[in-house]
DNA sequence: CAGATAATTCTGTAAATTCAGAAATTGATA
DNA sequence: TATCAATTTCTGAATTTACAGAATTATCTG
């Protein structure tokens, strides 16, 4: 593969793989994603195998995982019966989808558990007050954060980008703020 | 330890430990943190060992790690020469510190690498245009995100809480928005 | 300063994760 | 419906990571 011959492409892919391992995604998954992200055209599984030196099976698993994150999709290339794959090119979109999936997998179940614990502790006289307080607080915190996320994700991307470009200047527009920096 | 006898405390700690493994922190570190978070009083290392059934060495390592995140600190308890530890109780503060540390450890080096790659690709005629474009875009994206974070973290916590409670309603206050929901 | 206790670092082992190859399945074509 | 390519699933091996215990270093007390 010609793309992979480029040392900077290789550096990107290797680094991306390491990043993955620090963020709860396995190295192969992250590398496959990096390769697809850099690639101009849809790539088939066999080409990924050759480019990254992974086993066919791993590539298959990685592609499946990336598709559940919805940051890679299967496309059909005319005159070729093999499946080809492309990565989401819009980075903002990519980030949103990863966040959505991780929330679904990990945060939501955590909130559910905390709700249960908090609920039980509230009606348990024998429970140490401090324990109750801490669990309730954590539940409230994550729920608030989750609720905020659910709201913000409904905003159009353009609004989000505007907000981000504003940076700390958002504060200016809040009601009750004397407009200064 | 009396706190740990409570089944809900145990459930919290175990779940927190699993969460850790999905977010790039090892189980012991997350469990020690959970225990300290739930505990009313400062806890010494030996007590943690007994409560969680970990080796003394692991507890030592975990405490060190939590201190580099600055979400646990050492406190002195009168009349006891052993070190005792307490977790940050303000959850918002806790989150900010974790984010800060992970950015420092993982995001900043990534941005630095991308800057280097993007720079080299810009002055490399032989590089595929698409590769250059993708790397440059990723660099810009992460830089923007990083810059946004650096700005937002300077805002007072109260402002941040206000912003969060506002949720999607922030959009209303942006210049050029016809105030509706 | 000697003895004791606490804390950290080092090292071998256990556990968990990742991954390659084999086997099984799917699905397209003739 | 038989065949062949493509893809996925399963399983054992290899690598990596987490951890317990031993050894070392630091700190406190009398």
Automatic annotation (TrEMBL), chains A, B:
<keyword id="KW-0805">Transcription regulation</keyword>
<dbReference type="Pfam" id="PF12802">
    <property type="entry name" value="MarR_2"/>
</dbReference>
<keyword id="KW-0804">Transcription</keyword>
<dbReference type="InterPro" id="IPR026282">
    <property type="entry name" value="MJ1563"/>
</dbReference>
<dbReference type="InterPro" id="IPR000835">
    <property type="entry name" value="HTH_MarR-typ"/>
</dbReference>
<comment type="similarity">
    <text>Belongs to the GbsR family.</text>
</comment>
<dbReference type="InterPro" id="IPR036390">
    <property type="entry name" value="WH_DNA-bd_sf"/>
</dbReference>
<dbReference type="InterPro" id="IPR036388">
    <property type="entry name" value="WH-like_DNA-bd_sf"/>
</dbReference>
<protein>
    <recommendedName>
        <fullName>HTH-type transcriptional regulator</fullName>
    </recommendedName>
</protein>
<feature type="domain" description="HTH marR-type">
    <location>
        <begin position="24"/>
        <end position="82"/>
    </location>
</feature>
<keyword id="KW-0238">DNA-binding</keyword>
<dbReference type="InterPro" id="IPR052362">
    <property type="entry name" value="HTH-GbsR_regulator"/>
</dbReference>
């Amino acid at each position: 593969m010609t793309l992979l011959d480029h040392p900077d492409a290789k550096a990107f892919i290797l680094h991306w793989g390491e990043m993955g391992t620090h963020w709860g995604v396995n190295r192969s998954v992250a590398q496959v994603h990096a390769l697809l992200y850099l690639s101009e055209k849809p790539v088939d599984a066999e080409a990924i195998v050759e480019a990254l030196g992974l086993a066919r099976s791993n590539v298959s698993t990685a592609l499946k995982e990336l598709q559940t994150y919805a940051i890679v999709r299967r496309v059909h290339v005319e005159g070729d019966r093999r499946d080809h794959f492309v990565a989401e090119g819009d980075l903002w979109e990519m980030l949103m989808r990863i966040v959505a999936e991780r929330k679904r997998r990990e945060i939501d179940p955590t909130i559910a558990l905390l709700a249960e614990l908090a609920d039980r502790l509230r009606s348990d006289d024998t429970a140490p007050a401090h324990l109750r307080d801490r669990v309730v607080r954590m539940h409230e915190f994550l729920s608030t954060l989750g609720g905020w996320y659910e709201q913000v994700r409904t905003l159009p991307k353009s609004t989000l980008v505007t907000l981000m470009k504003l940076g700390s200047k958002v504060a200016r527009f809040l009601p009750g703020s004397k407009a200064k920096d």
